Amino acid sequence: MKLYYKDKLKIIEMYEIGITQVSISKQYEVSISTIERIVSLYNKHGFKYLRDKSKNSRYTAEFKLELVQRVLSGESKSFVGLEYGINAGTIYAWCERYNDLGYNGLKQDLRGAHMSKKPKPTDLTKPATNEDEIKRLEEENEQLKMEIDLLKKLNALVRQRKEQPNKKKLK
Question: How many other C-beta atoms can be found within 10 angstroms of the C-beta atom of residue 63?
Answer without folding.
Answer: 14
